[in-house]
Specification:
eight-stranded parallel β-sheet, about 20% strand, TIM Barrel, about 375 residues, alpha/beta, globular
């Protein structure tokens, strides 16, 4: 199996390609819906597939704690266990150990932490993290890394980068299954020299792909894009580049312009459950009273199941009544919006008009709630 990205078309730094996995080929740039517990919240595999999703993201930390990687291995792997026919990328859990505020203690050997579920104590090494993901049957596995908070001192971040590189080296040595790919995660906080050092050290280790990690931890957006712009050209052109956890539509468009191939975020599904629905210019908050008698669909240009069958008035009624079906219908719309955005991005790159598409999209996108 070819692990490198097969780049078909470039338009500036933006590119369209194909990423081959053990569970099919994936067109890039791609957005991966987040299925932390082995399921995308308020969505079923059939609908995800019909909307064009071919890869979803799971989380090794959560699946290790519940139901356990051993059980999933016994059940035939994450695809067979969950009924998902596409590819699965699993995060190693380093970010979750940081973001869930679990009691943790970093050591050279690994990380000791307290479960957010029942308070039990656990110790994960780089080797065990690779084993967990191999037990899950992940198509793409992530190295164990340390996600540093913002702000952090240069000294602390320097030491963290060293630890992340050493853990990455151990992860690669522990990998046993050739059909699974292993990505390194570039860290370094908001320090240019440390971001560059982390990227160069990981490139030297020759992973199947590279992720830009340690973002969305409180840093200003301007600093985030400075670091991403610095790191992306260092990464090999023939390997996939993955910007972790960043997923507002304008973020995706900006990331693609830097040459990023893969994105994930809980934003479309979490916003759906909160009644926030995406359109090409911004968001509608469906619970607002102004939609009580609105017979229009969420977005008149959208061809998703929700928009072709239901009005804003009906969706508002479901939401304020707390009917479970509204979470499914909202999620279908938001994921469809993201899948359609990626399709339009790929099309614009193939036709060598991505800059025009980007500028037009960003000029229309407000990011906030719409008044209509």
């Amino acid at each position: 199996m070819m692990s490198q990205l097969q780049v078909a078309t470039t338009d500036g730094s933006a590119r369209v390609g194909t990423l081959n996995t053990a569970h099919g080929s994936i067109e890039t740039p791609v957005f991966m819906p987040v299925g932390t517990q082995g399921t995308v919240k308020a969505a079923v595999s059939r609908d995800l597939w019909n909307m064009g999703a071919r890869i979803i993201l799971g989380n090794a930390y959560h699946l290790y704690l519940r139901p356990g990687d051993g059980l999933i291995r016994e059940m035939g792997g994450i695809q067979k266990f969950s009924g998902w026919d596409g590819a699965v990328l699993t995060d190693s859990g380093g970010y979750q150990i940081f973001s869930l505020n679990v009691l943790r203690k970093l050591k050279e050997e690994g990380v000791e932490f307290q479960s957010h579920i029942d308070g039990s104590r656990h110790f994960l090494t780089p080797e065990r993290v690779v084993e967990i993901q191999e037990n899950l049957g992940s198509d793409i596995c992530m190295c164990l890394d340390e996600c540093v908070p913002f702000p952090s001192s240069h000294d602390y971040t320097r030491d963290s980068v060293g630890l992340t590189t050493r853990w990455a080296r151990r992860c690669k040595a522990a990998k046993r299954k050739n059909q699974q790919q292993l990505f390194g995660i570039v860290q370094g906080g908001t320090f240019e020299d440390l971001r560059r050092r982390s990227a160069e050290e990981l490139v030297e280790l020759d992973f199947d792909g590279y992720a830009l990690g340690g973002f969305s931890v409180g840093e200003p957006k301007g600093l985030l894009w400075e670091m991403a712009s610095l790191v992306t050209p260092i990464l090999p052109v023939e390997k996939p580049r993955y910007l972790m956890g960043l997923g507002f539509p304008d973020d995706i468009v900006r990331g693609v312009s830097l040459g990023v191939d893969m994105f994930d975020c809980v934003i479309p599904t979490r916003h759906a459950r909160n009644g926030n629905l995406f359109t090409s210019t911004g968001r509608l908050n469906i619970k607002h009273a102004q939609f009580t008698r609105d017979s229009r669909p969420i977005d008149e240009s959208c061809q998703c199941y929700t928009c072709t069958h239901f009005s804003r008035a009906y969706l508002r009624h479901l939401f304020v009544s707390r009917e479970l079906s509204v979470y499914i219908l909202n999620t279908i719309h938001n994921i469809h919006f993201y899948m359609d955005l990626m399709r339009k991005i790929r099309e614009s790159i193939r036709e060598h008009r991505f800059d025009t598409f980007r500028d037009q999209f960003l000029s229309q996108w407000t990011g906030g709630e719409l008044d209509d």
